Amino acid sequence: TQLLEQSPQFLSIQEGENLTVYCNSSSVFSSLQWYRQEPGEGPVLLVTVVTGGEVKKLKRLTFQFGDARKDSSLHITAAQPGDTGLYLCAGKGGSYIPTFGRGTSLIVHP
Amino acid sequence: SQTIHQWPATLVQPVGSPLSLECTVEGTSNPNLYWYRQAAGRGLQLLFYSVGIGQISSEVPQNLSASRPQDRQFILSSKKLLLSDSGFYLCAGTGVVNTEAFFGQGTRLTVV
Questions:
Q1: Contacts of A96 in chain B (CB under 8 A)
Q2: Which tens digit of pLDDT belongs to each residue from B19-58?
Q3: CATH architecture observed for domain A5-109
């Protein structure tokens, strides 16, 4: 069974601070996705990383896929209250069923 | 683009009543479809998945069932709801080529 461990589980920071969320596994994934979910809504895809070592940037968000394709990180620069939400990572491995992490709940205080 | 329509958004049902949640897919054919349940602010628990019409696999034993009567229709049901069935239910899909999951808006079910 492929597992994705996300850390930290909860994060409460002030506006303007930087933060990093981690997604780790002992398994290799052919691709990994990051989603953001607001309360009462479904998760929305932010990015997909495919190549080991790949770095993608989405405005103030930087996503990195580990060289061995077993881990990934999401870094947010100068967080804003609008970044508040649940961040989920998901991996595509040997099964067609995506494996989801348990999520990181982020609160950014104004 | 791939879209999932899921309804209703919120539902309050008495214990022992039946349940039917439906989602429909647009923008892709022959998707894999999933029903998830999510505790407040936490990750997704996979309940059922389907790779085609009439094909349902269950991940956890429970009071719920799922059906896929059409390629783009996925239904979550119960004959008699329990208090423990309360939660946030999400329908999701993955395409044949594109394996990124796309989600419906979710249904907040409260069993009273």
A1: 32, 51, 94, 99
A2: 999 999 999 889 999 999 998 878 899 999 999 999 999 9
A3: Sandwich (2.60)
